Amino acid sequence: MASTRQCVTHFGRTPFVTAARSQHSIPQAIFLPFQQVRHASGENPQKYKKKDVGKKKRKAKTTFTQYDLRDAEQFSLCDAMRYIRAFEVGRPPTSAKYEMHLKLRTLKNGPAVRSRLRLPHPVKTDLRICVICPSDSKHGQAAKRAGATLVGEEEIFEAVTSGRIEFDRCICQTDSLQKMNKAGLGRVLGPRGLMPSAKLGTVVKDVSASVKDMVGGSEYRERLGVVRMAVGQLGFTPEEMQRNIKAFVENVKKDMAQLSDRISKDIHEVVLSSTNAPGFSLNGEFRGPASLTTKELSVL
Length: 300
Hints:
Elements: H1 4-12, H2 15-24, H3 46-54, H4 77-87, E1 97-105, E2 114-118, E3 129-132, H5 138-146, E4 150-152, H6 154-161, E5 169-173, H7 177-183, H8 186-189, E6 203-204, H9 207-214, E7 217-223, E8 226-233, H10 238-257, E9 266-274, E10 280-281, H11 294-297
C-alpha cells in the first residue's frame, strides 16, 4: 500500500493540478516595490512655512532717532560752562577744550555737511601749515609772512615720501599741482587726510590768504547726523564762548542752505561738552535767573 506522501507527489505531477495552479496564480507585476519616505523629524514641515509667512520684515529707518526736547533738561550757556568746569577742576586752562555738538534732522544716506571755519577767538593756534610752491617765489615769500611753517617743493616731496610729515595742514599752489601729482604724495598724504585737493579748497592761487584763514581755523564734518567742533578753551570767558558758538552755528546753517532744495537739513539740538565732561543740552539762553555772573565765570 502506497504512503500518503507518494500519493500527493503523484497528484502533483498530473496535468490537472498544473492547470489549476496556472489558473489561480496571481501575476507578479501587481506587486509593486515598497518605497519608504523618511523625514528629518516626525513633525509636520508645513508649520514652519506658516510661521515665515506670518512674519513681516521691518523697514530700515531712513532718518536718525530724534528725542523730544520738551522732556529733556536744558541749560543756559553760563550754567553749562559752570558745570563743565566742575568736571575739569585741576586741569590747565589750555589743555581741555569746549566741544559743540549740533544734532541734525537729516537723512542717513544724504550728503554730509563739511567745511572750515575761523572762529572769532581761535581755539588751536599752534597749527603747522605746509605750502607746496617754490620757496623763493613771490607766493612762497607771502606764505612765510602769513605764518606757514614749511614752504618748498622738492624738499617737501622727499620728506613726505620718506615718512617725515611735520605739518598738520597742506596747501598747494596751482602752478605746483602737476609736480605734486608726479611725486605721488597721494599714497602717503591721502589716508591721513592731508592731500591737497581743489574740492576741499587746499589747491589755491593765493596761498597767503589760505594760510591766514587756516591759522587758528578749525574743520568740521557731519558724522552720523552730528556736526562736532572745538569752540573754545577752558579759560575762555562766557562772552568769547557766545561769539564762537554763534559763528559756528551760523556757518553750519549757511552750509546747509547751499545744499540742493530736495535735501532738508535742520538743527535739532545743540549740546556743549568738554574733553572730560558730559554733554549739556543748551536752551538758547545766555544766562538763567540763578546763573553766576560772567565775571565770576571768567575766573578759574
